[in-house]
Design goal:
With about 160 residues, this protein is α/β, with parallel strands linked by helices. About 30% of the residues lie in helices and about 15% in strands. The two termini are about 25 Å apart.
């Protein structure tokens, strides 16, 4: 097992990127199937060794959908939260009170109950571990889907 980043001693706040990276890399990587993280946070990072893109890449490689419940009086780092959730197929919810929290969990549960997996055969057959962008478009514009923006190709033969 690869040793992940360790928290900085004496730093104030959350090492948000490190926490997401470690959860995906150390805890979820060996779990079968699609995984979900539900994170209550202000999405502000204070001293992580990992970068935002490292945390996102690790969740993508472990097939983990991230939902963020943004809890911060000042709104938190909405750009970070949105990037992480958009890139993994999850969503960001603003939580300012108990009702928002309850509605957010209800929506996440609804999303998970109506989760479908679709597949396709890529034209690029290279097993090079590179990131591949994907885009799902609905033929009927009355329907919508929340999807991740890409995946990492397998490595090897």
């Amino acid at each position: 097992m690869v040793q992940g980043p360790l928290p900085q001693t004496g730093s104030l706040g959350t090492n948000f990127y490190d926490a997401v990276y470690l959860a995906a890399h150390d805890k979820l990587a060996d779990e079968a199937g699609r995984k979900t993280m539900v994170i209550l946070t202000d999405a502000e990072d204070n001293g992580s060794k990992m970068k935002l893109q490292d945390a996102i890449e690790t969740t993508q490689r472990t097939d983990t959908v991230v939902y963020i419940l943004l809890v911060a009086a000042d709104g938190g780092d909405q750009m970070v939260a949105k990037k992480m959730t958009d890139e993994t197929g999850g969503r960001t919810f603003m939580v300012r009170n108990d009702r928002d929290l309850e509605q957010s969990f209800d929506q996440i549960l609804d999303d998970l109950r109506t989760l479908y997996t679709i597949g396709y055969t890529p034209t690029n057959k290279a097993r090079d571990g590179s990131y591949r962008k994907i885009k799902l478009e609905m033929k009927n514009k009355e329907y919508s889907a929340t999807t991740r923006r890409g995946y990492y190709a397998p490595r090897g033969n």
